[in-house]
Structures are given as C-alpha cells and as structure tokens.
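Quick check before the chapter quiz. The format below is the same one you will see on the exam, so make sure you can read both the input and the output lines.
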Amino acid sequence: MTILVTGGAGFIGSNLVKTLLADGEDVHVIDNLSSGRMESLEGSTKYKNFWFHQMDLLQGEPLVLPKDCRTIYHLAANPEVRISATNPSVHFSQNVVATFNLLEAARRIDAETLVFTSTSTVYGDATTVPTPENYSPLEPISMYGASKLACESLIVSYAHTYGIRAIIYRLANIIGEDSTHGVIYDFVNKLLKDPSQLEVLGDGTQNKSYLHISDCIDAVLMGVSLSKERVGVFNVGSMDRIDVKQIAAIVLAEMHLSNAQMHFTGGVDQGRGWKGDVKNMLLDVQKIAAMGWRPRYSSAKAVQLTTERIVKGLVYPK
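Here is the expected output.
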C-alpha cells in the first residue's frame, strides 16, 4: 500500500512514518517544515520506500498529490493551542483551509481512506468525564478546538458525498521525547534558563490525560486496520490523568532540581493556564479498547519517561 502522511516531519507524524516504514509500507511525506523538522525524519530517509515533498497545503494553485496514494494520514496542523487567543486566523487557515485543500486533492486522486488527528479540545468543558465520543453538545472553548471540529465536519461530509472512508482520532495530550512543545518541554526549558525557580501557568490544578507517543501510534494503526465504519470516530488517551503540579514535580525530580521553587501565575478563568485552556480532561477510550488496544503507560509514567529522555544529555547551567 502507498501511504501519504501530511505533517510527517512533526512529532506525531515522524513517529507514525517510522512505524509505517518499518512495516514495509511505501510512504510519501508532505510537510512545509514550519514546525516540523527534517531531523525528526533522519532515520526514515535511508529507506528506499520513502519520499519527502516540501509542500504547503495552503499553496495558491490546486494541490497535487502523488496519484498512487490510497490512504492519507492528515496530521498537518498548527499545534500551538495558546495562539488561539492572540491570532485565531492561524488556526483557521492552517487547520480548516488546509484540510479543505487536502480533501479536494484527495478527491481528485480517488483516495480511499483519510485518517485525521483531531483533539480532545473539541469537547470543550465537558460535563461528562470520562467523555465518550457521542458526548454533546460539542462546544470547544478555543479557536484550536473549533478549527479541529470544523475539519471533522468537512471530512465527514466528504466521506458521505464522495465515498472516502474517514477515521477521526480525538487525541488527549500526546507526549514523548521528540515533542517540541507542551508543558514538559516548556518546564525543561524554563529550568534550563533558571534552575532556582519554575513558573507554572495557572493554579496547578489543571488535570488532564497524557498518552505516550508509542501508545498513540499503536491506537491509530489498530483503528485503521480494524474499523469497518464509513466514518469512525475514536477517543485516544490514557485511562487516568495527572495535574500540572504533579507534572512539575516529576520534571524537577528528573532534572535533580527538587529544591527549585514553584511559582504559580494563578492563570485566568478559575485557574486555567490561558484563555481557552480546558482545565479538566479525561477521555472515555472504551471504543478503541474494544478492538484490543490498551495503553501501556499511565499518565504519570508517560510524563516520567518523556522527561527522562528529554533531559538526557542536556548541559545544565552552573
């Protein structure tokens, strides 16, 4: 099978590409390298069944995809949730418009399956926790969540109108050693600049699910392999959660900086880290679990493993 991965030089995308190549698939990657890095694909370029295309899904002329790609994994997006509050047009263009352009191109080459990485933020401040896929109403509280929900709607409409099989994954916080944004990455970099103190956005009680990248890739591939629906929507996350204060404590311990002082900013809207930050999130993952998937790591273990690998080899300020 020939597979296309958009955003394949990003964190989740590059890990997916490595797995697909190891499984013997022919893989084309599209990435504009605005947030993705070629370094993330370093091990993939040695494969003869790998092709990289530096392209922008927002290019002016109609998007042209490799014609033999029957399955498309659409991971290209702007991953910075916080930018929603200051520059909402970024998520509209890089998520919604880019997805529409890709769908049009996929239709032209008669693609069979489109796999989309959505987000838990489409649920907003859900009143049912753990939150199942059929929860309603979907009321995202950030432009990031709204843009991903708009992408879901576009994909579902193309699935029904043009016969494309669609699989949508609503992801919890996905973490791992290659991640280049998120709370762990931020904490490590703050402590490298000043090992004596750690600024924590919000009140520290923000409580969410964190899933290791290896568990995420397993779930994504299992759903693609086993789902029989025209449109399949799956939550993917750990079966527990951890708060920001606990994450900070793990990072401090792994960096041997347990004496550093935590400073909480207090945040906005009852302790959120920023405007649009969902304060409490835990997904009901029974649908994907019924296929045989189980996360190997708890949220805390995923945080610890990620932090351990990120800080390995770092040169600390004296």
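If your answer matched, good. The CA atoms of residues 202 and 210 lie 18 Å apart.
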